[in-house]
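Cont'd.
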Amino acid sequence: MDAARKKKVSVFSAHIVLIIASFFFMIPFIWMVSTSLKPLTQVFTFPPEWIPKPVKWSNYIDAMNYIPFFTYLKNTIIITVLSTVGAVLSCPIVAYSFAKLKWPGRNILFIITIGVMMIPGQVTMIPLFLLFEKLGMVGTPYPLILPAFFGIPFYIFLLRQFFMGLPDSLREAAKIDGASEFRIYWQIMLPLAKPAVLAVGLFQFMASWTDFIGPLLYLTDSVQYTLSLGLQQFQSQKGSEWGLMMAVSTMMTIPVVILFFFLQKTFIKGITFSGIK
Amino acid sequence: MKGNIQLAENKNSPKTESINQINITAKKRLPNGGQYKTGILFASPWIIGLLVFYAIPLFSSIYFSFTTYSILQPGEFIGLQNYKDLLKDQLFWKSVYNTVYFAVFYVPLGIIFGVALAMMLNMKVKGMAVYRTIFFLPTLVPHVALAVLWMWLLNPGFGLVNGILSTIGIEGPSWLGSETWSKPSLILMSLWGIGQAVVIYLAGLGDIPEDYYDAANVDGANWFQKTFHITLPLLTPVIFFNLVMGIIGAFQQFTLPYTLTQGKGTPANSLTFYVMYLYDNGFKFFKMGYASAMAWVLFVIVMALTAFVFLTSKRWVHYQGK
């Protein structure tokens, strides 16, 4: 009786704490959605109006006509999906090699990998731009996709930490059964690291989806533009269209929110590192 | 195995040699030999990527740092002049101070709040999927929208924050307009976006076997003991990861202060961060050589800090796999 009651109280207080904290984290999102439904005159009123009066749904239609929305959406999807596929294919296998296979120079290469994460993107920007120009890729989406297929240090480091947590005994058992190194990786280790791999996929998806500097540098023709470049256009042409801009921001944010909502369940299942049990 | 051989040698038994021989042949046949090739093969995409997308651009930028290179002119070789100029540059030192200030507060606070949030979001209560999504929301909102929101929230006259403070009788500071409060404001805003770190902590928490907690419960351990003797020690590999990334991220702080101040670092350069000044030198004043020198100084500082963290990690990071 007493224990059950105690549990009820702790669950209740957990909800209270979570709801209060949630409120703070929801403000920017609510504000964005609310602004997306306001006429321009209501955006900066004080005290703030959280509920737009009247609700201006036409902002969404106007926004889609203001910029070539569907062309930008298609471009964004192509770049995002391909670069995510690239990162998910390349990073885990490299991380696995760093964590579980022994080869000369491995540790030095790993320290260098950590080292290159510390280089501000601005440092390599110009030389990299010149490189892609020599390859004839400026003005195409390739500079935004191709590097992902060759590994991204942040994700390699993250995945390496997770592979380090998997016991060596699993590998050795499979080895005795005559499995090849690739089979051990593909059929045993990779499935165990699924939560971490999904996290990496999500991070890359988000990074690519909202990337601004990359498309700005490499996409020269407005037919190739992505949505984040489109957002900027609401500011540069004829003053700032806050309502329309937030409408596109909302449309950009919602797919990622839905994606996150469904993917986070696999983080709970992080316990599928059950090789440990 | 080694221990056995040692024992056999001590006894000086006639079997010693044959045991040693078996050991050597076994070593040759063991997967270790094959691992060299597979290891390098598996890592090969990154070895290529590292060379093409990182090493070559990086070495070009070292060269640039010794020249007066700008995008407009090829520039000439001037040796260490860029580095000497940096030491005399007042704004350079100001940007170093601002960046260190930010890092010193943001990195520890980020870890404390991140771990606490993740532990809250790892509780077994209904509707957790919704809570987790909410805590991740600020990281999903585009930066341009975020910057506009913060300017409005922290407006000294009619912003929401000072509005709430005045109802309880406190006269709020002018936040982003004040030299003293601008950096704390920025730290506050950045803490709002720790969703990504929280996800990584959550994945780490899910990785801790339930058995440990069951055993602790049997022994009658309380919440405090379970947190400090099971959860936190087993979370150290993930904390280590986020610590390193936090240091790197803090020193590269750019997008938020840049969009907030339209690249000006106002008031009185109190929000001019290192990479902002670097960017200005490279892309506003077209002093690519000078900017490259700055980049290399930053690289050395952060590299030294990370090396230090790595050296201490053996004392406090525990890997379950080992």
